[in-house]
């Protein structure tokens, strides 16, 4: 952290606007590490010497829940570094509107013998976030152009128009579409994942109508194109 945060302050740019740098927050600012001086987008940096695979360890669970409720989630920079070669190996960006409360896993509280006993942290479930919402900035030590990163961020930005309480369903259906691994698909292929969605949203007894509603929402957001007769295309 002593090394990665200054590196981020010196090298990161804002993916939301043309600003070539970000400003650091004061230490211990809840849920955020950086802010764009131009558009005021907030960001949080998470670093690890091991590749991020299924989850990203985050800070206090209560802080993340409050940020979600206020729609003040930060976008996440997940930085994987090589401690031997002393370089950044991979860096991905998860936009603030591409994850929700369903993607936050509450960890067990610290033991009573710990210095901060009863403190409760959380993990961001990376595997639950749509693949297209994990925007690469550095891959295998090779940086992606800021223009390409901003293009991907802007392509996903319509998701911010979905209210936080409703965003989980939209993201889950988008995640399933991504898992199909193709551009064109049929409604029946999404219906095939009905039980997965039912398990995620067990209070909802009308999963198929909800699927159709989310496909329409994704179409209205400009992320899908309706081809007719139950056929769709990812834009």
Highlighted features:
single chain, 235 residues, 7 helices
Q: How many strand units?
A: 13
SSE run:
HEEEEHEEEEEEHHEHHHEE
Beta-strand proportion: 25-35%
Number of helices: 7
Q: Going across the biggest sheet, name each strand in turn.
A: 1-2-3-5-6-9-10
Structural shape: globular
Q: Report Rg.
A: 19 Å
Structural class: alpha+beta
Residue-averaged pLDDT: 92
Distance between the termini: 38 Å
Q: Tell me the helix content.
A: 25-40%
Which runs of at least 5 residues are low in confidence (pLDDT < 50)? none
Largest sheet: 7 strands, mixed
How is this structure best described in words?
- The chain is of the alpha+beta class and 235 residues long.
- The chain is built from 7 helices and 13 strands.
- A hairpin with a 2-residue loop joins strand 12 (224-228) and strand 13.
- The mean pLDDT is 92.
């Amino acid at each position: 952290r002593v090394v990665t945060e200054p590196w981020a302050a010196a090298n990161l740019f804002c993916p939301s606007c043309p600003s070539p740098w970000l400003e650091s927050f004061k230490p211990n600012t809840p849920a955020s590490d950086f802010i764009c001086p131009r558009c005021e987008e907030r960001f949080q940096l998470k670093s690890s010497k091991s590749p991020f695979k299924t989850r990203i360890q985050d800070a206090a669970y209560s802080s993340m829940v409050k940020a979600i409720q206020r729609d003040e989630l930060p976008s996440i920079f997940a930085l994987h570094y090589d401690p031997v070669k002393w370089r950044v190996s991979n860096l991905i960006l998860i936009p603030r509107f591409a994850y929700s409360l369903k993607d936050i896993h509450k960890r067990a509280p610290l033991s009573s013998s710990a210095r901060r006993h009863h403190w409760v942290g959380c993990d961001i479930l990376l595997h639950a976030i749509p693949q297209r919402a994990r925007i690469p900035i550095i891959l295998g030590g090779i940086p992606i152009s800021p223009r390409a990163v901003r293009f991907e961020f802007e392509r996903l930005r319509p998701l911010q128009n979905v209210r936080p309480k409703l965003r989980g369903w939209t993201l889950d259906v988008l995640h399933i579409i991504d898992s199909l691994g193709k551009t064109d698909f049929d409604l029946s292929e999404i219906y095939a994942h009905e039980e997965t969605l039912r398990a995620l949203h067990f209070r909802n007894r009308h999963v198929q109508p909800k699927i159709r509603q989310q496909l329409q929402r994704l179409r209205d957001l400009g992320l899908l194109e309706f081809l007719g007769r139950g056929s769709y295309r990812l834009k």
